[in-house]
Design goal:
This protein has 223 residues and is an all-beta fold. The protein folds into two domains: 48 residues, no CATH class; 132 residues, Immunoglobulin-like (Sandwich), CATH 2.60.40. The chain contains no helices and twelve strands. The N and C termini lie far apart (131 Å).
Length: 223
């Protein structure tokens, strides 16, 4: 009698094959059926159908645009005005009670736009370029950046006491005036009427010549 191969369903997937010994089937009435064949017994496998797990679909990478370098559209910062690219001149003198107010103008003589911000520096000069006593007082005032196109202007004002109220006290009159643009290291020289200043300061008993109050540059002509 042939050996029978029985397949036992494996819930986990593949069927396991077991080898069995001779199977003797005893029937009531004891008749052995033999018809040149063997008795085959199969067991129905347990259903191995299971709900398929949803496959995780990887998200496609987002389409990227042109990754080539594009020229920057950010404007190049405008540099400050250098003394070598500026000129300065007197606009006018104006008398007040016991004092003089003078207005000057910077002009951009260069070919590029530049900026000025803040207070100019001042220095009185005597004969032969000798330095005279100079005290500069910055008057509190709003400061703003003034942009000068080629040929553009920026103005500033200064004020100083004249000899009124100082009796016979005398202060020297300058021959020329050094004016240093804001945030610069080199000065410009104004000669002629714009360089002839006679500022007083202090008191009659404590004379302090060369005291000048100055305002920051502005983009509008104050005259």
């Amino acid at each position: 009698m042939n050996h029978l191969l029985l397949q036992q369903a494996n819930p986990g997937g593949n069927a396991r094959v077991h080898h069995w010994g001779p199977v003797v089937t005893l029937l009531a009435g004891a008749a052995v059926l033999a018809a040149c064949g063997s008795i085959g017994t199969t067991t129905k496998p347990h259903s191995t159908k299971s709900k398929a797990h949803a496959s995780s679909k990887a998200k496609a990478p987002a389409k990227s645009g042109n990754t080539g370098n594009k020229p920057s559209t950010q404007a190049t910062p405008t540099s400050r005005c250098h003394s070598s690219k500026l000129s300065v001149a007197l606009v006018q003198f104006e008398g007040a009670a016991g004092s003089t107010i003078a207005t000057y103008v910077f002009t951009n003589s260069g070919s590029a736009t530049c900026t000025l911000f803040g207070y100019p520096g001042l220095g009185l000069l005597g004969t032969g370029g000798t330095g005279l006593s100079t005290t500069v007082i910055r008057q509190p005032a709003p400061e703003s950046t003034v942009t000068l196109q080629p040929g553009g202007h920026a103005w500033f004002m200064m004020e100083f006491s004249n000899s009124t109220g100082y009796a016979n006290a005398q202060c020297p009159t300058s021959v020329s005036l050094e004016i240093t643009p804001p945030n610069s290291y080199h000065y410009l020289v104004v000669s002629g009427r714009g360089g002839q200043l006679n500022p007083y300061g202090g008191t009659v008993t404590a004379l302090h010549c060369g005291t000048i109050s100055v305002q920051p540059v502005t983009d509008s002509n104050p005259v």
